[in-house]
Design brief:
This protein is α/β, with parallel strands linked by helices. It has three domains: 150 residues, Nucleotidyltransferase, domain 5 (2-Layer Sandwich), CATH 3.30.420; 51 residues; 101 residues, Nucleotidyltransferase, domain 5 (2-Layer Sandwich). 31% of the residues lie in helices and 29% in strands. The chain starts with 7 loop residues before the first strand and ends with a helix.
C-alpha cells in the first residue's frame, strides 16, 4: 500500500532557448506536484545559436546535466525555441478532414519566413474557439536537428512540444486551480532575456499566442519598454478581433523572479490590467537537495546551476510546463 505514496515522475522537460538550456522533471504523488530534478546552464557567449558549435555544446551539456543530476529515466519532452517557430491565427478552412492539412498550409504559405515547400514544412495546428485555429510551423531540418541532439545525448523523445501549450500547462497546474479559473480568460507573459512569449488562454485551452523580440535585458531602456507595451496592446486588439465575446480578466507574469517586480508592475499599469506574479518555482514542493546551491563555484560550473528557491532568478515556466505535458 505504501507504493501509492511514492512520486510518479513525469518526463524531463527540456527548454532550449537562445540564451541557454533548462531541464526540469516534476512528479506527482496524487496530492501535489514536486520538483525532483532541475538544472540550467547559460550558453557561452562565443557559441552562436543554431550553429554546429551550438549543437555540440547542447549535446554535451545535456549529457552532463542528466548524468550528474537526479533525473529519473531518459524520456524527455522538448520544445523548439520560440525564435524558430512561426505562429499564425486563421479561421478553420471549410474542407474535409482529408484535405485540412493542405488547406491550412495554403493559408499560411505566403507568410512563412522560410521557403514555403510543404514537404519541408512541419505544421501543428490547434482548433480554438469561434472557428479560430492556432497554427505553428517550422522547417523540417530544424526538427531533424533537435531530434539528432536528443539521440546523441542518449535520451528518448516522448514528444516535441510547443511553448504555448507548455505555458498554458504551467498556468493551469499552478495558478488556475480555483473553480472560477476554469472559465477565466488570462494573458500569460513569459519574459525571457531576449524575447517575450505571450499566451492568452482559458485554463488549458489556447486562444492566442505570439512571440515578441523584446526581452528582460532590453527593458531598462524606457523607449524599448514602451514598444513592448505597444506590442502587448496589439496582441489584445488582435485577440479581441478574433474572439468578440471574450474579455481578458487578468495578466499573469510567469517569469517569477527572473524579471524585476517593478518592471512587471510598470507593464501592468500601462496596460491597465489586474496582474499577478506567477512564480512556478514557489508553487511546487521541493526535495531537500534542491533547496541549496552547490558547495563550490567549480561544482556549479561543472553541473550547471542547481535550483536555489531562496534566490532563483531563472525562468522555469516553459521547462515545468513541458514536463507536465
Amino acid at each position: 500500500m505504501f507504493g501509492f505514496l511514492k512520486n510518479h515522475p513525469y518526463a524531463i522537460g527540456v527548454d532550449i532557448g537562445d540564451d541557454g538550456l533548462k531541464l526540469a522533471q516534476l512528479a506527482s504523488n496524487g496530492k501535489g506536484i514536486s520538483l525532483i530534478a532541475g538544472s540550467n546552464k547559460n550558453r557561452p557567449q562565443d557559441v552562436s545559436p543554431g550553429t554546429a558549435d551550438w549543437q555540440r555544446w547542447t549535446i554535451e551539456t545535456i549529457r552532463q546535466l542528466t548524468a550528474n543530476g537526479d533525473f529519473r529515466g531518459r524520456e524527455v519532452i522538448a520544445a523548439i525555441p520560440a525564435s524558430e517557430v512561426f505562429i499564425d491565427h486563421i479561421k478553420m478552412p471549410k474542407t474535409g478532414d482529408d484535405k485540412l492539412d493542405d488547406a491550412i498550409f495554403s493559408k499560411i504559405r505566403q507568410k512563412l519566413p522560410f521557403e514555403p515547400v510543404k514537404d519541408n514544412t512541419m505544421i501543428k495546428y490547434i482548433p480554438m474557439e469561434e472557428d479560430n485555429v492556432l497554427v505553428m510551423a517550422t522547417e523540417r531540418k530544424i526538427i531533424d536537428r533537435h531530434l539528432a541532439i536528443y539521440e546523441q545525448a542518449n535520451l528518448q523523445i516522448k514528444s516535441i512540444g510547443v511553448w504555448p501549450v507548455a505555458l498554458a500547462n504551467c498556468y493551469a497546474s499552478f495558478f488556475g486551480r480555483r473553480k472560477s479559473d476554469i472559465e477565466a480568460v488570462v494573458m500569460l507573459l513569459d519574459i525571457e532575456p531576449n524575447y517575450t512569449n505571450v499566451v492568452i488562454c482559458r485554463h488549458r485551452n489556447l486562444l492566442f499566442a505570439h512571440s515578441i523580440s523584446i526581452g528582460a535585458r532590453h527593458l531598462n531602456d524606457e523607449s524599448v519598454a514602451a514598444r513592448l507595451v505597444l506590442e502587448l496592446t496589439n496582441c489584445r486588439r488582435q485577440f479581441g478581433s478574433m474572439l468578440h465575446n471574450s474579455q481578458i480578466e487578468r495578466l499573469i507574469f510567469l517569469s517569477g523572479r527572473a524579471v524585476d517586480r517593478d518592471v512587471c508592475a510598470a507593464i501592468a499599469k500601462q496596460l491597465e490590467m489586474p496582474a499577478q506574479i506567477g512564480d512556478c518555482l514557489m508553487a511546487v514542493e521541493m526535495d531537500g537537495h534542491h533547496q541549496f546551491a552547490g558547495d563550490s563555484k567549480h561544482e556549479n560550473e561543472r553541473l550547471g546551476t542547481p535550483i536555489d528557491r531562496r534566490d532563483c532568478h531563472t525562468n522555469w515556466a516553459t521547462a515545468f510546463g513541458l514536463s507536465l505535458s
